[in-house]
Amino acid sequence: MSDRTVGPEIGPPLLYRDALMLVIDKPAGLPVHPGPKGGPTLTDHLDALRFGLPRRPEAAHRLDRDTSGCLVLGRHAKALARLNRLFADGKVDKTYWALWRSPGRTGTRSPTSCARRPRSPRAASGRSSCGITTS
């Protein structure tokens, strides 16, 4: 287990820590919050991230269960409120990358450069031209 591992079993690595926030590397397959089916969640590991504070940190945003990436946590109520406001006001830049492998072709796609679906503004439309690199 590395020094950056959060929990004793499957805790995500700690990428950044200061007085207000933590940034962790959430692995794909680990939901942030408990769901109806139960099972392990990131919430199970938050107590290990107190670093001497009386309460555990809380997620300032979410990443889907199958999404890996940087997750920002507020270390106390005031920090969490400030982080939530930054996310709500669109003052946090996010970049999403999709990686895939199919027979004879691998590559990456940046959905942030793709057109959005009219009924689902968070999803990219597969009909648009996106930046794709294949190798």
UniProtKB/TrEMBL annotation:
Keywords linked to the UniProt accession: Isomerase
Protein name according to UniProt: Pseudouridine synthase RsuA/RluA-like domain-containing protein
CDD domains: PseudoU_synth_RluA_like (cd02869)
Low complexity bias spans: 108-135
Family affiliation: Belongs to the pseudouridine synthase RluA family.
Annotated Pseudouridine synthase RsuA/RluA-like domain residues: 22-101
SUPFAM superfamilies: Pseudouridine synthase
Coiled-coil ranges from the UniProt annotation: none
UniProt record, GO biological process: enzyme-directed rRNA pseudouridine synthesis
Keyword Nucleotide-binding found: no
A single GO molecular function term of this UniProt record: pseudouridine synthase activity
Sequence intervals crossing the membrane: none
Lineage of the organism: Bacteria, Pseudomonadati, Pseudomonadota, Alphaproteobacteria, Hyphomicrobiales
Keyword Transit peptide: no
Region of interest (Disordered), residue spans: 102-135
Superkingdom, taxonomy of origin: Bacteria
